Amino acid sequence: MKIDILTLFPEMFDIFNHSIIGRAIKNNIIEINTFDIRNCTLDKHRKVDDYPYGGGAGMIMAAQPIVDSIKTVKTNNNGKVIFLGPRGKTFDQDLAKQLSRESELIFLCGHYEGIDERVYEYIDMEISLGDFVLTGGEMACIPIVDSICRLINGVLSNSNSCIDESFYSGLLEYPQYTRPENFRGQKVPEVLISGHHDNIRKWKKAQSLNITKIKRPDLFKKYVLTEEDKKLIKDVKL
Ligand SMILES: C[S@@+](CC[C@H](N)C(=O)[O-])C[C@H]1O[C@@H](n2cnc3c(N)ncnc32)[C@H](O)[C@@H]1O
User: Fold this and answer.
1) How does pLDDT run along the chain (238 residues), one tens digit per residue?
2) Signal sequence: where (predicted)?
């Protein structure tokens, strides 16, 4: 997967040079490039923003540097142009899965009071991180790119880890424990040390179902229960 990020603050993306994503970049599984929108401004003072027509608070990122940045990056990246903005489709795991199947993507980060409306002509999709306002698209781009990249084959050392995780199958994850078996009087559920694989599987599924039902009834409502799920909800205690 090749990702190009158009931004006024490329240094904010140094975060991708660390940990799991940093390792995936070093191993050439993913490529993440930043492109400074300021490189394309035709203004002699390197200005990229201006006052809004009709008045109003703050500055608006001008169309010219953004559109010319998109055109420049597109010469080496055929991916969809995705703008991070509050009007977009709210990001979720399904969208992360869908985008992880693409081989190339371009992200555009707005800043200040946003972008000139005419830039939308050059955008394929708008994604929002949620119903709140951030200081810049960079703040949304980082978690979105992270969650897409970790679904790409080879990025996580164990490819099963994301299949078991919250949201992947429409449910929240079951509780997890590591050593010691007894932490200050709190014991690991017996079934997990029983070595009985089918009972462990059923316990994990029952926990996921019950936790989702309690904590995220909205997700639970959408989840289609199998016959085994219906039995597990009744049989296993939380
Ligand atoms: C301060 S915001 C501009 C908000 C804009 N004036 C409005 O009311 O919709 C600056 C930039 O942050 C990004 N941004 C803000 N909230 C976002 C969100 N919920 N999801 C994704 N990007 C967001 C967008 O790129 C936006 O252009």
Assistant:
1) 999 999 999 999 999 999 999 999 999 999 999 999 999 999 999 999 999 999 999 999 999 999 999 999 999 999 999 999 999 999 999 999 999 999 999 999 999 999 999 999 999 999 999 999 999 999 999 999 999 999 999 999 886 677 778 887 899 999 999 999 999 999 999 999 999 999 999 999 999 999 999 999 999 999 999 999 999 987 666 5
2) none
Question: Using a 6 Å cutoff on CB, does residue 24 contact ligand 1?
Answer: no
Contact by Cβ (8 Å): 162, 152: no
Residues in the chain: 238
CB of 133 within 6 A of ligand 1: the answer is yes
Pairing, β 49-50 against β 60-61: antiparallel
Does the annotation place 107 within a ligand binding site? no
Q: Where are the domains of the chain?
A: 2-149, 182-235
Say which CATH class 182-235 falls into: mainly alpha
Cβ–ligand 1 distance for 8 under 6 Å, the answer: no
* DSSP assigned state of 101: T
CA distances from 49 to 46, 92, 140, 163 (A): 9, 31, 20, 43
- Please state which CATH number belongs to domain 2-149: 3.40.1280.10
Contact 109, 32 (CB under 8 A): no
Q: Token pair for residue 131?
A: 């119903």
